[in-house]
Amino acid sequence: xxxxxxxxxxxxxxxxxxxxxxxxxxxxxxxxxxTLIGFILGMLRSSNIVFLKRLIGTYVAFxxxxxxxxxxxxxxxxxxxxGLQLEAFPAALLAMAIMGSAFICEIVAGGIxxxxxxxxxxxxxxxxxxxxxxxxxxxxxxxxxxxxxxxGQYVLLIKDTSVVSVIGVMELTRVGWVTVVRIPEGxxxxxLVGILYFSISYPLILLSNxxxxxxxx
Length: 217
Known about the structure:
- The chain is mainly α.
- It has one domain: Orthogonal Bundle (MetI-like fold).
- The chain is 82% helix and 0% strand.
- The chain has helices at residues 2-11, 13-45, 50-65, 68-78, 88-114, 117-125, 130-160, 172-182, 186-216.
- The radius of gyration is 21 Å and the shape is elongated.
């Protein structure tokens, strides 16, 4: 029986590859969006504008303090009641952007705040604008603190793509649930799902470990 299930799994393996491609697409697009938004929010959160800091802090607290699946349901089921109707894929990207940018915001803000105040004073005395100070002096130094946890957060975001299956996105986890209906050997099916997730996460784990050692030096 196990041999039969395995042969069936081999037959439908291309279905898993399509799921892997969808997972990769969701992850890649959301990582770009999360990084851009997260860096902007992180720079604003590290500023001296109290109103912005509190506003972004509230957003970050909500995004980090609520389950990701709840955020997906809000985007996919509640937003249409407010006039924002989204298909499953863009809804998944929006939910990932909301959640991921909050975590990246905190990483970026922490990295900027770790730079010594003397660097700000030196940059200011050189006649640079605030934006130039950030771009030319502060951010390059903060990247030593930001990059290792940022890559680690990327790994977590890739794994979080599994949650978007609840709104019908046909990524790896969804493919696994559909396959279990045909092949009632859950361990075999989801072992394959886990291996495929590992195949796209492990290179980032290695990169994170390398960067941590590199930045420590």
